[in-house]
């Protein structure tokens, strides 16, 4: 009977194995990610070897090991981006992934080797490396109007699309009033332009008549002087 219970106990341990804890660690590409792992160190004799590996913890050792320690220092290191920055002498064996990449996502096993059968402390940690999000502001389209005048004050407008970054109401540009702030002012400007266009030809005609008169006087004076010279 006792042998039967011993066999069942051995089979239960072999098939179920020790309890494995775990955690979820998220980070961004380019950041330094720390995967936590600790074990109890009460006395100097408690310091022991451990390993980090990719994938879930196997029955023994680490699958695809990336770091090994003898309890006091790092003895094997797969890549310089994998580091143990904690104090090994107090049981802090947390893994730091420097300049994380998207390929670093996956399961990591932390295995602390404790003397005795099935006493190893194991923990599986899922690491998720995400891309950094880039926020974009929706552009706003504004239109501008231009007024042209020829002869009379006729207004024509055209639309020019311009894309500007979004601004708040307090930062929005204020519209200043033009020379024609009202209908009466625009009428005065129109009448002034018409008077100027009428007075300009009259002034030109008077100046042309003056030049013609001066020319005739000069011709008559020359004829008179020539007649005196001949006589």
Automatic annotation (TrEMBL):
SMART domains: IG. GO terms for cellular component: membrane. It is found in: Membrane. Pfam families: V-set. Residues 18-135 form the Ig-like domain. Residues 139-188 are annotated as: Disordered. This is Ig-like domain-containing protein. It comes from Nipponia nippon.
